[in-house]
Amino acid sequence: MSEVLRTEQLRKLFGGLVAVNDVEFAVEEGEIVGLIGPNGAGKTTFFNLVSGAMRVSSGRIFFQGREITHAPAYQRAELGIGRTFQIMKPFPRLTVMENLLVGAYLRHPNRHAAVRWAAEVIEMMGLAEFASASARSLTTAGRKRLEVARALTLSPTLLLLDEVVAGLNPVEAEGTVELIRRIRDRGATIIMVEHVMRVIMGLSDRIVVLANGSNIAEGTPQQVATNPDVITAYLGTHEGRDARPQATWSPGTPAGENHSARDDTGPTLALRRVQAAYGDVQVLWDVSLEVRPGELVALIGANGAGKTTTLRTVARLLRVRDGEVQFGTNRLDQMSSHDVVNLGVAMVPEGRQLFNQMTVEENLLTGSSLARTRTLRRTNLDRVYTLFPLLRERRRQEASTLSGGEQQMLAIGRGLMSAPRLLMLDEPSLGLAPTIVEEVFRVVQDIRREGITVLLVEQNVQQALRIADRAYVIESGRIVLEGPGPELLQSAEVRRAYLGI
Question: Which of 259, 277, 344, 427 lies deepest, with the highest CB count within 10 Å?
Answer without folding.
Answer: 344
